């Protein structure tokens, strides 16, 4: 019994897997990154400037026209449809 082709195919498989893994690592390395301090500052800035209608204790009451969670009933129909 000749085990030579099996060993060659196994080594080719290992090489292919390593090559694919290497490519994924290169893609990860090329991904743009920012410092944690910059990301944190950006998140804090967003939270301070973006009003959340679900937290009226912080932002005050939201006018009905500006509330995205207010029922937008059209033609007297309810907000839900049961089929």
Automatic annotation (TrEMBL):
Biological processes, Gene Ontology terms: G protein-coupled receptor signaling pathway; pheromone-dependent signal transduction involved in conjugation with cellular fusion
Main localization, broad class: membrane
What GO MF terms are annotated?
G-protein beta-subunit binding
Q: Which InterPro entries match?
A: G-protein_gamma-like_dom (IPR015898), GGL_sf (IPR036284), Ste18_fungal (IPR041848)
What protein family is recorded? Answer: Belongs to the G protein gamma family.
Write down what this protein is called: Guanine nucleotide-binding protein subunit gamma
- What is the organism of origin for this protein? Trametes versicolor (strain FP-101664)
Q: Name one GO cellular component term.
A: heterotrimeric G-protein complex
| Localization (cell) | Membrane
Which Gene3D superfamilies does this chain map to? Transducin (heterotrimeric G protein), gamma chain (4.10.260.10)
Indicate the segments forming the G protein gamma domain, all copies: 6-83
């Amino acid at each position: 019994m000749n085990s030579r082709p099996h060993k060659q195919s196994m080594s080719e498989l290992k090489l292919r897997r390593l090559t694919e893994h290497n490519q994924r690592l290169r893609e990860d390395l090329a991904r743009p990154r920012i410092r944690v301090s910059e990301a944190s500052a950006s998140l804090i800035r967003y939270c301070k400037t973006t009003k959340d209608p679900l937290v009226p204790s912080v932002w005050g009451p939201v006018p009905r026209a500006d509330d995205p969670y207010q029922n937008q009933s059209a033609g007297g129909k309810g907000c839900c449809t049961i089929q």
